[in-house]
Amino acid sequence: MEKNQSTGNDALAAPAVSVDIVLLTLIDKKLQVALVKSRSSYLNGQLALIGGTVHPDEDKTLDHAVHRILAKRGGLKKIFVEQLYTFGSRDRDDRGWSVSVAYYGLLPITELEKNEQELTFYPVDKLPKLPFDHKKIVNTAVERVRGKGGYSTIPARLLGQKFSMLQMKQIYSAVLGEEIDMAAFRRKVLSLGIVRTTNEKVRLGRATRPSELFELVPGVVNFDSRI
Fold it and tell me: Distance between CA atoms of 48 and 174, rounded to whole angstroms?
């Protein structure tokens, strides 16, 4: 059987490669995703995930492309992101073969007012019509975050640097998609040693008494026992 040989001048058939970011945050105690109006003439302003094509002459890595696009489309810098999954097929875009390397990111609630710009937020369970397989990408990201959230401090990245135990409980409840008993949550978190007190107290919202503030213990990300 004759083997395929490369002459060194063969051009590789290159599918379109892009990155799409499922940027999650908490609004009205609900997990929500950031969408933007697409600038593509093909989509004609339709709401879509934050994303764009990889620029080979500018992006040294996929992570670099993600942070470049987040800064350009949302004015966002130093946002936690993690690679999620690669979506690719001949059928996901009727213009031809395409590949999307999907990421999920977590936008702290303290950054919302600073970074509104072009972003529009929708609850992850009430999405508008989205192009391509963006709804599938969102669902995959939510499944990943919920799967890892019960055994890690990842959900707490939606908080500011300092937070009350109630705020932390609300974040975990929204991310995990389940009600959590406050007293049991407090005992569990303190027993895991993932937070420490800041020795500060503030009055939050309509509370009549000030709440103790906590911060994450540096270096602690994962733990064996589910919250």
Answer: 23
List the structure tokens of 208. Answer: 């009549």
Task: Concatenate the DSSP letters of all residues of 192-217 into one string.
Answer: HT-EEEEEEEE--TT-SSPEEEEEEP
Q: Are 69 and 51 in contact (CB under 8 A)?
A: yes
Of 135-144, 157-166, 191-200, 207-216, which gets the smallest average pLDDT? 207-216
Determine the structural domain holding residue 204 and report its residue range. 154-216
Residue 126's alpha-carbon distances to 41, 106, 121, 138, 157, in angstroms, are 26, 19, 10, 11, 23
In terms of pLDDT, which residue wins out, 14 or 179? 179
Among candidate residues 131, 50, 130, the one with its CA nearest the CA of residue 94: 131
Nearest residue to 105 via CA among 51, 174, 169:
51
With respect to residue 144, please indicate whether it lies within any of the assigned structural domains: yes
39 and 69 part of one domain: yes
Token representation of residue 77: 């810098």
Q: Take residue 196 and report the two structure tokens written for it.
A: 């420490």
Domains identified in the chain, total number:
2
- Predicted confidence band of residue 113 (pLDDT cuts 50, 70, 90): low
Question: What pairs with residue 17 in β-bridges?
Answer: 99
* Neighbouring residues of 215: CB distance < 8 A, sequence distance ≥ 6: 161, 162, 163, 195, 196, 198
